[in-house]
Amino acid sequence: MFTDYNFSFALENLWKSLQLMWRGMLGIFVVLGTLSLVVLLLSKIPEREKKK
Amino acid sequence: MGYLLEGLLALVSDWQRLLMFVIGGLLIFLAVKKDMEPALLLPMGFGAILVNIPFSGVLTQEGSEMQGIIQWLFNVGIEVSEALPLLLFIGIGAMIDFGPVLSNPRMLLLGAAAQFGIFLTFSLATLLGFDLRDAAAIGIIGAADGPTSILVANVFQSQYMPAIAVAAYSYMALVPIIQPVAIRMSTTKKDRLIRMPYNPMAVSRRMRILFPIVVTIVAGLIAPDSVSLVGFLMFGNLIRECGNLESLSKTAQQTLANLVTLLLGITIAFKMQAADFLKIETLVIMGLGLFAFVFDSISGVMFVKFLNIFLKNKINPMVGAAGISAFPMSARVVQKMGLREDNQNHLLMHAVGANVAGQIASVVAGGLILALVPKMF
Questions:
Q1: Could you report the per-residue pLDDT of B66-96, keeping only the tens digit for each?
Q2: Are B335 and B348 contacting, i.e. CB atoms less than 8 angstroms apart?
Q3: What is the C-alpha to C-alpha distance for residues B148 and B171, in angstroms, rounded to an integer?
Q4: Is B82 left (phi over 0), alpha (psi -120 to 50) or beta?
């Protein structure tokens, strides 16, 4: 216990994590941005009036 | 007579098991006395005691023909199929009213921004020596979404799943303590005083029904690995919003969610065996989890500050912090802080909008991490 942990600095992994950071954030913004636009468009479509 | 003392002797001779009893007791104490996510921390705490009893029957023991129930639940419900965290999403989806975000869709962007802490924590975890898969599983604590954390940790076969689950659920319960500090650190009094009138767009029933379908398709096309997460969340929401499945909706919100939460807590405890849990990494992960929550909140605030440069009607930056997925605690924190600065400044509905957007963004983040990390090797 408490002996096998190695605080090793892995530059390659850090570089990969930074790549994943921008790709991930871009992906999230693209998905949520698209949804935002779709909701905005849907709200512009008028509701059909209910038949009495 | 020796057989009567076998268990006791095994326990006394192994202080790590005793320490796990204390940790289990602490989780039960936090759940019962402090009301911290009791639905999950109590089963986890009790489960930690169950799995650390020497020769425990809840684990499959060597040479025994009896299969341990907790081990079986873990194998079937989490390891093989991820069924338990995914089923919980149906219940969560049925509980969420997306109305506030549908009436103000730009709040969706705030949910996206508040996921930055996930990636920042991921980078920090790699800096601290965790491999990419473990670092990704740790970063997802910042999704402030327990089932997503468990699912990602399981898919990446992270040995740190119990620490990640404990961190995710503990910090969610601590949002009312963590977030005010993070918000104060990143805002000025002038920021916190920004008033936001609430003029929501009308939300039709058609939009409420179409929304979960559209979310699933859009998220699925851009991040296919998020389909199981987003799809089950939105399936639950569709049941809620369709209007003619009230009984199913109530079952999903109450019976299903309660049953799965109960089983999920005690099942995760399988990984809380002393040898797996008592590591210095557990403490490091708790620290990284806190870092993730703080930087999620700060990134949400900073994004709103950035947006305000271009907006005529400014958004109160505190609302950005509600973009984390901890629902509804985060929205309540923002409302409370807003009223403390100005007793006429009601930010609740804006914050709820950002908060439910955070629910969607966090599962999308989980799906993207599941898709992107394997490609890094």
A1: 889 999 999 898 888 889 989 999 999 999 9
A2: yes
A3: 14
A4: left
**Distance between A41 CA and the closest CA of chain B, angstroms:** 10
- Kindly report, residue by residue over B283-306, the tens digit of the pLDDT: 999 999 999 999 999 999 999 999
| Two structure tokens written together for B270 | 């399988």
Higher pLDDT, B102 or B40: B102
pTM: 0.86
Once rounded to an integer, what is the mean pLDDT over residues A30-45? Answer: 91
**What is chain B's length?**
377
Q: What's the mean pLDDT in B114-127?
A: 95
d(CA B53, CA B20): 10
Mind listing the pLDDT tens digit for each residue in B175-207? Answer: 988 999 999 999 999 999 999 988 877 888 899
Residues contacting B29, CB < 8 A, separation 6+:
B45
Question: Which residues does chain A have within 8 Å of residue B127's beta carbon, measured at their own beta carbons?
Answer: 9-10, 14
Interface test with B, best of A35, A42, A48, A50 (most B CBs within 10 A): A35
Note whether B39 and B261 are within 8 A (CB): yes
Structure tokens at A42: 């849907």
Q: Which residue has the tokens 């969706």?
A: B108
Q: How far apart are CA B227 and CA A23, in angstroms?
A: 18
B272: pLDDT strictly greater than 70: yes
Helix, strand or coil, per DSSP, at residue B277: helix
Contact B373, B133 (CB under 8 A): yes
CA angle B124, B117, B285 (to 5 degrees): 50
> Which of B111, B119, B284 lies nearest to residue A24, judging by beta carbons?
B119
For residues B142 and B293, is the Cβ–Cβ distance under 8 A? yes
Q: How many Å lie between the alpha carbon of A25 and the closest alpha carbon of chain B?
A: 7
Q: What is the dihedral of CA B168, B108, B345, B191, to 10 degrees?
A: 80
**Is the ipTM of this structure higher than 0.90?**
no
Closest-CA residue of A relative to B274 is A1
Cβ–Cβ < 8 Å for B71, B57: no
CA–CA dist B259, B346 (Å, integer): 36
Alpha carbon B253 to its chain centroid, in Å, reads 17
Cα dihedral B290/B28/B38/B287 (nearest 10)? 10
Q: What is the rounded distance in angstroms from the CA atom of residue B49 to the CA atom of residue B43?
A: 10
